[in-house]
Amino acid sequence: MSAATRLIPNLVIAALGVAAAVIAAGYGVIGDDGRIGPGFLPALCGVLLVLFAVVNSVSSHRNRTSAEDIAERLALGSDAGDHGLPVEEPDEDGVDIYGRSQRQRDRMLWAVVGIILATVLLTPVLGFIVAFAVMLVVIAVAVERRKILPSLMVSVITLAVTYTIFVVLLQVPLPQGLLGI
Length: 181
Prior knowledge:
- It is flat and about 65 Å long.
- The chain has helices at 3-27, 40-75, 102-126, 128-143, 148-169.
- By secondary structure, it is mainly α.
- The protein contains five helices and no strands.
- The relative contact order is 0.08.
- Residues 11-175 form the DUF1468 domain.
- It holds the Pfam family TctB.
């Protein structure tokens, strides 16, 4: 894959980030009273998109260069181990570093999509906080096969941060559902 082909998706993401930040600035990032305005979160997301696109582009270039360097040294017959370069045979089965095949990764992706859809459907019933908490724990435990206690702790911390950002700082009411939570 050429460098330009690898760069195009990152450029598109960066352009979307710039557009989001510019449009969000029109809504007001900081209000007249010094409080966070309605454009703050979209502007922050836009800036983060640009940042992540740049980081991904640089990282992709570095990783590709390293892989090309290793392949070149191996093709020339030099011992890559002498240069401190890792030598790994490509995995013909497409198994990732966690031992998952492409089929397993695809199933995990579809499971997450289904869980998100269920979360959206359950939010009016359970409320955002409860539905979001259940989603985080189910993805961590059922899909990623993580231990339940650390998953619960991450869920609680994530919910606290989400609540602080939206309810306390931005004063955006979250859906409470039939439970009123």
